[in-house]
């Protein structure tokens, strides 16, 4: 009942929490979008209306019906030029041939919005740091501000492993780089006056949203939503200018190109707003933000089965593939060279890129391969 009151009561009208891209950006947005997404879903399911964030996203991104596992988003690798062929397991789409991060699948990201929910431990930590954040802003202490953001993002990545790339699972260096990147983004934005002005504008525009529709579907009216979108667009473009100049774009832990980083930012925003927009507005937003994408049906294709040398999981590789990301454990695996038999248990394993010694995932003894 609390949720209904909160979402639909006359006094507390529903406020999408994703108001823009300020507020230490990603955490706030992720938190917000999951709150929004989950609350909406709960409400809609309880209201007997079976329509949720994912269904909307599926429809809007133009995927041709279920089962979704039969489709792959059309995209090609900026690094090696190959077309994405195999279905990714997460929203982070890695190249089948060289293992680069090449795309972000908005539809997949919408499958599991609660994966970005950090929970009460995080909330408490964030609350306890509020005063320090305010003080750092007040005294223009960038280092201190960034240190606090680093603390917060580390916690968030730890608590929400499924909201970030599978590479963060077991790769401590990757996690460190990711947290550093997120904390720098937040800091560069926070200490820029223009960015903050956009944020204030978005906050004002969000308060002016007119809510229409009846329980269980409350809708932000298009004419009051679009000014927010336009401001956020300016804000995002401005922010990426700042981030590029400050060298932060180049620090993305997957070396994602700028347009991909932008789309990932938009994904957060769109996940927050999609549940409260009318179909036409939602579709226009997703398309304008570059998240629509085309999906093609997976054709039966001949693959070779290999075994991740770290977790033992199966990898299905295509002819000509050199490096694949094992999406189960997040390790880049060398699939350009033959598998090796573990001398102890005889299990076949493919080594992580750059390694010639590896603990066999099956029998835990040390396996070796000749250097190539
Ligand atoms: Zn590639
Ligand atoms: Zn693995
Ligand atoms: Zn073994």
What does this structure look like?
The protein has helices spanning 2-8, 26-46, 53-60, 106-109, 120-138, 142-159, 172-190, 193-207, 222-245, 258-273, 279-288, and strands at 71-73, 92-94, 101-104, 211-212, 219-220, 295-297, 304-307, 314-317, 323-326, 331-334, 340-341, 348-349, 357-359, 366-368. The chain has 372 residues and is of the alpha+beta class. The chain folds into two domains: 2-296, no CATH class; 304-368, no CATH class. The strands form seven sheets. Strands 1-6 form a two-stranded antiparallel sheet. The longest helix is centred in the middle third of the chain and has 24 residues, at 222-245. The structure holds zinc ion (3 copies). One zinc ion is lined by residues 77, 79-80, 82, 95, 97-98, 100. The site of one zinc ion has 8 residues, from loops.
Q: Please tell me what the overall shape is.
A: globular
Which series of helices and strands comes N to C? HHHEEEHHHHHEEHHHEEEEEEEEE
| Contiguous runs where pLDDT drops below 50 for at least 5 residues | 1-27, 33-52
Terminal residue distance: 64 Å
The percentage helix is 40-55%
**Oligomerization state:** single chain
State Rg: 22 Å
Structural class: alpha+beta
